[in-house]
Specification:
single chain, 5 helices, 4 strands, rod-shaped
């Protein structure tokens, strides 16, 4: 009868198993990806989101600059102080925003100011309540007259998907990014 030779004690078997586990490199790629992947995708997502926010800010600014010509040249549908002129101007601005904005959430103010040098005195200092993120700005649409200085402001709360505290510029209290566009023009000397 043969005797069974035990290959070692329990402790020795565990030691061999641990050595074999430490020498094995199977599954290392999966573990590395599990550690690095979420950070990589978060950085890519934040980069794409920032690019979209910059594009949206540019689109808002370009729309305000382009549509200000309607007021500057005295086109009749945009110069009277009426709700229809305000609606026409809002529709003109929204028509140039590539469909990426909710036009009902866009805040627009068109008003006369004294001169180009005094426009800073007329800027909306804080269009939002800093504590709640609610709008404090009232929309306004002053009719334009010939040879007057007009200021056009537009504000929009852009939604933020990847919100890293401290890294979102112009962050509002409700977690959105405030986009703003201001344009000051001098109307042509059209008849009032």
């Amino acid at each position: 009868m043969g005797t069974i030779i035990e290959k070692g004690t329990k402790r020795e078997r565990l030691r061999r198993l641990a050595r074999r586990f430490l020498r094995s490199d199977r599954g290392v790629t999966v573990i590395e990806f599990a550690l690095v992947g979420p950070l990589f995708f978060a950085i890519i997502g934040a980069t794409i989101e920032t690019a979209l926010a910059f594009f949206a800010g540019y689109a808002l600014d370009a729309a305000i600059i382009d549509t200000s010509r309607l007021i500057r040249t005295g086109q009749s549908a945009y110069v009277t102080q009426s709700q229809s002129s305000a609606d026409n101007y809002r529709a003109a601005v929204c028509g140039q925003l590539y469909g990426i904005f909710d036009c009902d959430a866009l805040r627009i103010s068109v008003r006369e100011i004294g001169s180009f040098s005094s426009f800073a005195d007329h800027l909306t200092v804080d269009p939002l309540d800093p504590a709640s993120g609610a709008w404090t700005m009232t929309e306004r649409y002053d009719g334009a007259m010939g040879s007057r200085t007009m200021m056009i402001e537009a504000y929009y709360k852009w939604p933020v998907i990847i919100n890293v505290p401290g890294l979102v510029p112009n962050a509002t209290a409700d977690g959105k990014r405030l986009l703003a566009a201001t344009h000051v023009i001098r109307t042509e000397p059209f008849p009032s």
